Structure formats: structure tokens, C-alpha cells
Amino acid sequence: MAAAPILARRIARSGVLPLCCRPPSWDRAPRQPPGLPLAPCRAFSNNKIQVELDESSGVAMMKFKSPPVNSLSLDFLTEFSISLEKLENDRACRGVIITSTIPKIFSSGLDIMEMCGKNVEHYGEFWRAVQEMWLRLYGSNMVTVAAVNGSSPAGGCLIALSCDYRIMAENPKFSIGLNEAQLGIVAPFWFKDTFVNVVGHRIAERSLQLGSLHPAPEALKLGLVDELVPEEKLLEKASAVMARWLALPDHARQLTKSMMRKAVLDHLVAHREEDIKNFINFISKESIQKSLRMYMEMLKKKKS
Ligand SMILES: CCCCCCCCCCC/C=C/C(=O)SCCNC(=O)CCNC(=O)[C@H](O)C(C)(C)COP(=O)(O)OP(=O)(O)OC[C@H]1O[C@@H](n2cnc3c(N)ncnc32)[C@H](O)[C@@H]1OP(=O)(O)O
Q1: How many domains is the chain partitioned into structurally?
Q2: Residue 13 placed within a domain
Q3: Pocket probe mutation, ligand 1, options 299, 302, 303, 304, max atoms within 8 Å of Cβ
Q4: One cellular component GO annotation, for this chain's record (predicted)?
């Protein structure tokens, strides 16, 4: 994936500072008092995502921190892809745990405002960023564990589904699913394929058509998440799971992962431009724009 020049252009336009132009990122870990051995931990943080790599275990903790709801805006997606790329290229990193700093929310999915009232160029750029994020995460060589500590609709669910393992806080108020149909939009084929690969065809078909958001206990029953734990135990459990996965030789696990995911990844890579055109045509329709506007209004009304 030769994404670097595209990312660089997008960053330049979005105003987000690329990590390479910031003060040396690995220097931003807290300084140790003199005399103590250096903690084997490196950290980098940008506007919306914070990452800490523990070099002794090879595990990075990635935390979404984009209030109010960690929606996946163009800037967020760009930062996410850059963070994943940095970790992927770091020989010290073998696994990443993904979670959120926002109480009750893992991610609210794609930022609906990025799909409303914008021009064709913007839609194209946004959709390419969504694709890039998924290609990097689903195709990652690292072990990826989602510690889902809040609600996770649509694009948020896609992030969790793209990981190797999903642990969710056992709060029944938190829900997860591909609810696109409820917004009057359609999950694209690679969202659907990722979902089918986790829960199987029948469950995916029903859930997608109904645009279901499954409360945590139901998500467990459907196999949409692998286990539920009390929220305060989530990160501890994620680390334990990670250690179990990392106990295997990387090359065997990576080749197996690639074998399992290759067909779905290749499908998008082969049809990327066509997929972008489809997105632009679909999202530009006045009827779809109206549905999205109504959905946003409904969200705001729910508050008042
Ligand atoms: C032929 C086929 C071709 C196919 C081509 C492709 C077609 C298009 C594919 C598009 C795929 C889309 C994927 C998506 O991810 S769409 C997004 C789906 N997300 C949702 O439905 C979540 C909506 N949000 C919520 O349910 C709640 O906000 C949530 C449970 C997440 C949190 O609830 P809470 O009560 O805590 O907070 P509020 O509801 O008050 O929200 C706070 C503010 O945040 C705004 N908000 C919420 N979600 C989003 C979002 N996804 N994007 C932008 N903004 C969001 C919300 O409006 C509040 O704003 P204000 O404070 O200004 O009112």
C-alpha cells in the first residue's frame, strides 16, 4: 500500500500536523527521574489518538480521544492510518490494543457531517481515507485487540470487526452493529464481508437488513464480540488475551491471518476506484442527503 504521498497531501490540506513534523514523537514519553532505569515505553499523541508502546511486551495501547463521540472524520481517519503505519513499521511493536478515552463511547462511526452537503472532491477524499484505514487495520500484521468500552455503531463496529479479537464491557446499555440501514444508507461490500467473516452469513444478513444495534449481551451471543468483561477489567483482559496471541511465532500467525483475510482485502484493492465512484454517486443523491439530515436532526432532538 503506497499510501504515504496520499496521506502527506491530505494532511497538508487538512491542517493536521504530520507526526514526522512534530517534535520527535518518541521523545514525548514522560521523562524518568535521574538514576532510575528508563521505562521501556514510547508514546506519541496527535490531536485525536494517543498511542503508547511498551517495548518490553511489544504491545501498543491506542486510545481514541476525540470528543464528543470519537466520530471518524477525515482528520481522525488520517491520524488513525498514520498511527497504524508507524506501529506497523516499528520492529518493537507486535500488537495493538484499541480502546477509547471517552466514557460510554468507543466510536460513533463515520462522521455524518463529512457525508452531508459537501462537494464531490470531498466525498472522494473522505471515502479514500475510510478505505485506507480499513486496509491498514484489517490487513495489519500486528495482533489487534479491540477493547470496546462503549457504544460502537457502524464505522465504530467496523473498527472492532477488523481486529483479531473483540472484548466488550458487559454494560447492556452499550451496543454495537452495522446500523447503516437505519440511516437510509447501505454498508458497502467490504463492511459486509468483514461482518460476514466474523458472524457468518445468516446473522450478518438479518442484522444488516434491520440495521441492528446489538446490546453487549446479544452481541456476545451472536459472536459479534468474543467476550464480555466488567468495564474496569477490560484493559487487563485485553492485555492477557494479547499475551496469549503473542505467545505464538509471528510468522505462522501472520501467514494464517493473511490467508484468512486476503480475498476480502484483494477485492477492495482491485475495485478501490470503482468503490469510491459508487460512494460519491450514492451519497450525492438528494434522497440520501435528506435521510442523513433527518437522522442528524433526530439525534439532536433526542437530546432536548
Ligand atoms: C449501491 C451501494 C453503494 C454503497 C456506497 C456506500 C454508501 C455509504 C456508506 C456509509 C457507511 C457509513 C458508516 C457510518 O459509520 S455512518 C454513522 C453511523 N453512526 C451512528 O448512527 C451513530 C449516531 N450517534 C449515536 O447514536 C449517539 O450519538 C451515540 C450513541 C454515539 C452517543 O450518544 P450520546 O447521547 O452520548 O451523544 P449525542 O447523541 O448527544 O451526540 C453528541 C454529539 O455528537 C454528534 N454525533 C453523534 N454521532 C455522530 C456521527 N456519527 N457523526 C457526526 N456527529 C455525530 C451528535 O449529533 C451530537 O452533536 P451536538 O452536540 O452538536 O448535538
Answers
A1: 1
A2: no
A3: 299
A4: mitochondrial matrix
